[in-house]
Amino acid sequence: MSLPFFITILIILIYIVLFMKKKLSFTANAIQFMVLSIISTNYITILTNKLEWMKASEDITSFISLLINRECILPLVGVIMVNGYLNYRRTRDKMVCFVCLLFFISVLDVLHVHFHSLSYPEWSLLNTVLVNGVYLLFCIWFGKGLYHFQKKEEESIGQNL
After folding, report:
1. pTM of the predicted model, to two decimals?
2. What number of CA atoms fall less than 13 Å from residue 39's CA on the CB side?
């Protein structure tokens, strides 16, 4: 049951990313996606395999849904967070975007526990929410850096990153 759900969420997020207003160029968004994919993969791999704070499911369909979440969904949420943060002017709107996306990825973690694709023997959901918040803050920081380099390149050469 978890695999169709996470594939549906992935398709919806792809449509959101394709049609949302973006401040970052295609290349900057691709770099953002790749870096966030590497970070989310390493984060979950370290917690499950090395530290054994989380336990991944042995069921192949549940494990594939976990892979879809960490390889595609979390980086797409990061791209949405950065472009939303750069598009909004008011601090209130930026905070609403941050809280909504933090709630969204935290609900995905709860659904992983519900579908038995993840369990937390030595970890808590509160710790996961805190790490997700740090992940979104890193997304903002990295995206602002890419945006700075993009603007610098546009000013000096007249091209886009």
Report:
1. 0.89
2. 19
